[in-house]
Amino acid sequence: MTTHRPIAILPPAVAERIGAGEVVERPASVVRELLDNATDAGADEVTVEVRGGGLELIRVTDDGRGIPPDEVELAFRHHATSKIASLDDLLNLQTLGFRGEALPSIAAVAEVELLTSDDAHDSGTVVALRAGEIVRRRRTARQRGTTVTVRRLFYNVPARLKFLTTGRGETLAVGQLVRRYALANPALRLSLLLEGRLSFRSSGSGRLATAMADVYGATVADTLLSLPTRQIEGTTIGGLIGSRGVTRSSRDQVTLIVNGRCAACRSILLAVEAAYRPFLPRGRHPIAAIVVEVPPGELDPNVHPAKTEVRLLREPAVAAAIAEEVREIMGHAPVRPPADADFSLGAGQYRLPLSRRRLAEAPGPRWPPTPDEQQVLDSTLPTMRVLGQVDGSLILAEAEPGLFLIDQHRAHERIIYEELVRRAGQGAMEAQALLEPVVLELKPHQAALLEERLTDLDALGFRCERIGRRAYLVRAVPAVPGRESFTANLDALLEDATSDADGWRGRLMTALACRSAIRRNHPLSELDMEELVRGLASTAAPAVCPHGSPLILHLGRDFLRKQFGW
Ligand code: ADP
Ligand code: MG
User: Fold this and answer.
1) Who is most buried in 38, 243, 477, 479, counting CB within 10 A?
2) Domains of the chain
3) Reduced to 3 DSSP states, what percent helix, strand and coil does the chain have, rounded to the nearest 5?
4) Which of 1, 32, 82, 307 maximizes ligand 1 atoms within 8 Å of its Cβ, making it the mutation to test the pocket?
5) Residue 82 beta carbon below 6 angstroms from any ligand 1 atom
6) Mind listing the pLDDT tens digit for each residue in 313-353?
7) Using a 6 Å cutoff on CB, does residue 37 contact ligand 1?
């Protein structure tokens, strides 16, 4: 914020529009409020000190613009703020703070001392408060900036103390908040001291990638994929997301940053988690920092008194766009083991995180294909040179950024699957007559479902004809662009066509692709391999098979350098 006005009490008409409720729920909420104040004051460097889970001490020191001596008292009054003055300001917020409630709320439940100095005055001011009232005030020397010290939090609210987790739990919550804060404010140099020891420090480089490295370490940061900046209806989305190789066992490592605020937005977080689901092993969750910029008037940060949630005007559209990007990126990203993965003989084996998701969730084009999904997307796979086949099952290839191992079966599955979806979408699925028609004997409810789906099946190339109460004759099957014959056990293949679960067409096509794809342990000519790699590069999700399992392993130059110790 560049403009600065004096602190003033909000007119009742504005104050009434501000969500009432408890601002200070736990130590982390105090830290958040004090960090917000430091950020709004234009600080470059902020230090957070915490002792005893924040109940003993929280101290936040900033180098921001400070508070003029004659405004210090006012800062502790309810609804006193320098950040907004009118309803209009409230609807077009430029600052993190706006309620004028944090300092008075904290001072009501703790012993507070504030030391502050602005540029315009020779000396700074210290005030000490008890039960919300100033009990001591003097002048003091201090460089520009503010230090707020909060001691004995909730000493006068025993009921609140009972509801807090252990000191350790509160410390963890503060640690998590400070790290998220560093992601939301990459230009801020932020330090966290726990019990006097440095626990976290961000470099303040101004780059999200650096902030992610500060929080998750350089090894993880190196494997992050970028969510390209994209505009949708005036909203900009972007960020960095973790690949399938770096996951966490808890759900809370997706940080959402909306107009510089780290706050939850349920529908977006759920959409991200859902988009990742088919790509991650069961029980594992993604790491990501997602940055959303909306016009201030489209953001409501006023939904939760402790600022933990925000609401967006175009939330469903924004959530859908982010989820689409995540799916798109994950569908293209080869598995890349982190450079420090231990491959040495005898050491713990590196295990590829495979996932076998429900087919209905499989990534890539779905049934019915939407116009967007039918067009072949630009592949991010580099142009590869095939070097040979490994174990009759993997294609070894090289490209500018290192070595690639491609699972030939899954690659072929992906190619066939997309071709089938494309043909079916254009109503161009060809049928091939079976030399010997196959008889299907079905259970009554299966027969009923098949009867309903005869036209749909016809469009997919399956010509079935009823020959008895529950018996059908399959006369033709789709002409699949595969290698293997898939007509053995047709009844098992058509199981999906008589299942009452949704997405049966997509599953049927996945099963077709799986059956007709080249198998593992099958020698391939150089030409075959080249064709396969080329075909894969033009699919919409070249990194995963239609079941969602990874199909490319990428050993990059950094990886090789590290492994060989060059
Ligand atoms: P709000 O942030 O919603 O305005 P607060 O109670 O948090 O309300 O703070 C009241 C006012 O005190 C702020 O509007 C701001 O002018 C001033 N203030 C608080 N903390 C700081 C700080 N660290 N640096 C400069 N000014 C501050
Ligand atoms: Mg504030």
Assistant:
1) 38
2) 8-202 (3.30.565.10), 223-332 (3.30.230.10), 353-554 (3.30.1370.100)
3) 35, 25, 40
4) 82
5) yes
6) 999 999 999 999 999 999 988 887 777 665 544 333 333 53
7) yes
